[in-house]
Amino acid sequence: MTTTFDKPASTLTLEEATAEHADLQARIAEADTHYHQEDAPTVDDAVYDSWRRRLKQLEKRFPDLRRADDASERVGAAPAAGFAKVRHARPMLSLDNAFEDADVVDFLDRIRRFLGLGAEAELTVLAEPKIDGLSASLRYEHGRLVQAATRGDGEEGEDITANVLTIADVPKVLPADGGWPEVLEVRGEVYMTKADFLGLNQAQQAAMDAGDRRAKIFANPRNAAAGSLRQLDASITARRKLHFFGYALGEVSSPIAVTQGGIRERLAAWGFTLNEPARTCRSADELIAYWRGIGEGRAAMPFDIDGVVYKVDRLDWQERLGFVSRSPRWATAHKFPAEQATTQLLGIDIQVGRTGALTPVARLQPVNVGGVMVANATLHNEDEIQRKDVRIGDTVVIQRAGDVIPQVVSVVLDRRPHEAESYTFPATCPVCGSHAVREGDEVVRRCTGGLICAAQAKERLKHFVSRNAFDIEGLGEENIETLFEGAFVRSPADIFRLKHRFEDLKPVKGFTDQKGQHKKLTKLFDAIEARRTIALDRFLFALGIRHIGETTARLVAGRYETLEQLRDRLKAAAADREGEAWAELNAIDGIGATVAEALVDFFGEPHNIDVVDDLASEVAVAPYTRPKTVESPVTGKTVVFTGTLEKMSRAEAKARAETLGAKVAGSVSAKTDYVIAGADAGSKLKKATELGVAVLTEDAWLTLIGG
Ligand code: IVH
Fold it and tell me: What is the pTM of this model?
């Protein structure tokens, strides 16, 4: 059955269309709520589709009816060509952790000291559950959701607006009389409930059994939420039942509250769901009692939490406390211990990684660990299996902590079947049959097959296209498998030559489209073309050399600046480990012997040089450019604080000076640029005067640094 509408859309007046549009939107929104939140559809799919079609017709005729919150944009939005990058107006920080009761006491003490609060002054802290999901920043302008972004590296995330629009409990428009600021960024967590996670994995398993190679089992609700949110096709996100809790602010054009509790009240009034139960506490004892209470109810909660978060309630104090590296001083996460369960070990599989490492994975009788079913767990390495004497058939203790892969903790010895035999770790690679060896005192056994090992070659390619490397959208793990197996891609450069294989690829599984339009292939080719220019540090990271992570890649790229230099100097270092090039490599700040060895091992192999040269013939490698640092009048200056400061504690003064790029020293010397003297300054002030170092009052210093 489909609904028929009174008049064709083409004959409606604007008033009629507006009324009908509003009515349809309400009906669709209600149906969506039932579908997403209660998993109980209230309308027939065909009726629902007819509403959507009609909505689209109305909007085609009267485009002004179309708004960001329209149901027509909420699901089934056209797949984007990759995620655009979004620079956060204010960085998205992470949290410091507390594990012990003493850490909580320290947290409060540090805050009191920093703010210079006496023992009698009241310090109110808001406590709320810490959800294990993915943080997102939602930007509202004039009360309308205009952009949503992932956290990314904290400075820059990905534009996931289309996806977030499909989340039922994210308000798309704030209430008309809400008194919200013109610009409002709400930060919070996107998550999946445990029940939806289990349901999703069941559906994924069924799809895999039916031969769908793209379907995969998610390790935990957090991964499932991440996989569902970062979908180029937002209609997939829409089907995945995600939720959102709001718990903090990003940029706001005017203050909305004076306390954290006040922020919660405003967010609730604007329609956001909050992390409950929250509590306002006034001492470490109260915080710890709250933490204990939440911990006891944790397994019964509908979503995964991995601790609780404490936040200083007063926002002016939050402002003064600021942050250290990537975490605020005014907040901390009090973590829960990992959750455990026992089950039977059915078998041990060996996985071969990018660098040939053999990792044993336990196949388990599926077991519920804190509300989540676990069927696989890591056994780490050969020595761990031996140390724990893990045998197939044993009953084992499994542990799951937040985002980490579940692990086998120990064996329940008195339940060991008498026929269980000790496990012998394979001495050959299960994929290519090459010897698997342990070098020096390494715990890891590695396949020596190098690139002849299909497992290593595939893992390297997966790394090569991954997000922080070449970041090729649409080349997921499954597609790499297919392209490798079909001999379309065997080395990185082959990816850039794929477009010449258009005809051969058309019928290949994973690349065919309904109606034979080959949109997937053209989109993939576009995504590949978009990455034909790459920065040197990413290029180096993408090669997947052992021990070369992103940070190390940046250090090395910073030293050699161009690919030619890097390649030639490292080749030279490999040829002569006593020569100048070797010394030059070892002199790079932050690079130790292991990294230097790994680099020359790689660049000393002619077949690796061939891979690099082949790739360089396909892509343009941009020379390394140094990131800019913030400039302030005190950047690079050495300052010394002395005497009693009136406006802030010593710790706060020091932190601010460092944030602005100054170096804070403990004693005065000829190298000191400024001495900031508070009340009752003594010997340091005297020394400064003797040495002719500039002396500033606290006020003069504040004027210099701009407040
Ligand atoms: S406040 C300035 N509150 O935990 C820090 N974070 O491990 C703002 N998280 O990046 C974060 N629940 O993604 C805050 N109730 C909560 C949270 C929470 C989960 C996440 C958040 C953060 C991560 C740090």
Answer: 0.62
Q: Are residues 615 and 659 in the same domain?
A: no
CA of 89 to the centre of ligand 1 (A): 18
User: Per residue in 265-322, pLDDT tens?
Assistant: 999 999 999 999 999 999 999 999 999 999 999 988 999 999 999 999 999 999 999 9
Going from the C-alpha of 475 to that of each of 450, 461, 541, the distances in angstroms are: 23, 10, 18
Cβ–ligand 1 contact at 95 (below 6 Å): yes
- Contact predicate 411/396, CB 8 Å: yes
Domain containing 645 — which CATH number? 3.40.50.10190
Q: Which residues are catalytic?
A: 130
Question: What angle do the packed helices 14-38 and 45-61 form, to 10 degrees?
Answer: 140
Does residue 35 belong to any structural domain of this protein?
A: no
Q: Of the residues 128, 130, 305, which should be mutated to test ligand 1's pocket, given the most ligand atoms within 8 Å of the CB? A: 130
Residues of the chain with pLDDT under 70: 1-4, 29-49, 66-82, 213, 402-403, 627-630, 707
CA-CA distance, 83 to 230, in Å (whole number)?
9
Q: How many CB atoms lie within 10 A of CB 669?
A: 12
- Closest-CA residue, ligand 1 atom 12, reads 130
Is any atom of ligand 1 closer than 6 Å to the C-beta of 114? no
* pLDDT one-digit tens code per residue, 417-458: 999 999 999 999 999 999 999 988 888 999 998 888 999 999
